[in-house]
Amino acid sequence: MEKSRKENLLLIRLSDGENLEGSLKKALKEEKIHSGVILGGVGMVRNAALSFYVGKGEYETVPVQEPAELCALSGNISTMGGELVIHLHATVAKQGGAAVAGHVSGGEINMTAEIAIMVTPQKLTRESDPETGLRLLRFE
């Protein structure tokens, strides 16, 4: 991983084999970032898992094991109970052009990925919602 931070903008380049979420968490902890917006990300992933909310905290997950283009990555950074929460969504394209999109439940970098994060002055937290089973975003 390589990273560069200038004021509220953090740029990260992940390398082949790195865990997407784990590496992002490591970078955020090193930079002491607890709230932010993932402006975008591109590159390639493999062994990805994209999930779709089907109700009451339940998800259906689609595995994308083969290398795929990371066409779009977005999300936010918050805390819940003092723990860092990264909420990511992505669109990936398989060879041949078929695209899969959803909540990122897993994945590792294939060759490289480039990610831009904006640190927010607002404190973002999450709170469990018993009705939906989701961890909803709150602003402080």
Q: What does this protein structure show overall?
A:
By secondary structure, this protein is mostly beta strands. It has a single domain (2-124), classed as 2-Layer Sandwich (60s Ribosomal Protein L30, Chain: A). The protein is built from one helix and nine strands, in the order E-E-H-E-E-E-E-E-E-E. The protein has one helix spanning 20-30, and strands spanning 2-6, 9-15, 36-55, 58-64, 68-80, 83-93, 99-119, 124-128, 135-139. Strands 1, 2, 3, 4, 5, 6 and 7 form a seven-stranded antiparallel sheet that branches. The longest helix has 11 residues, at 20-30. The N and C termini lie far apart (31 Å).
Which characteristics define this entry?
7-stranded antiparallel sheet; 67% strand; 9 strands; 60s Ribosomal Protein L30, Chain: A; two-stranded antiparallel ribbon; 140 residues; 1 helix; mainly beta
Count structural domains: 1
Strand content: over 45%
Secondary-structure content class: mainly beta
Biggest pleated-sheet summary? 7 strands, antiparallel
Radius of gyration: 15 Å
Rounded mean pLDDT score: 97
CATH classification class: Alpha Beta
Q: What are the segments in which pLDDT stays under 50 over at least 5 consecutive residues?
A: none
- According to DSSP, the number of beta strands is 9
- The helix count comes to 1
Shape: flat
Helix content: under 10%
CATH-scheme architecture:
2-Layer Sandwich
CATH domain fold name: 60s Ribosomal Protein L30, Chain: A
- The helix/strand order is EEHEEEEEEE
Q: End-to-end distance, in Å?
A: 31 Å
Looking at this structure, what is the CATH superfamily?
Hypothetical protein, similar to alpha- acetolactate decarboxylase, domain 2
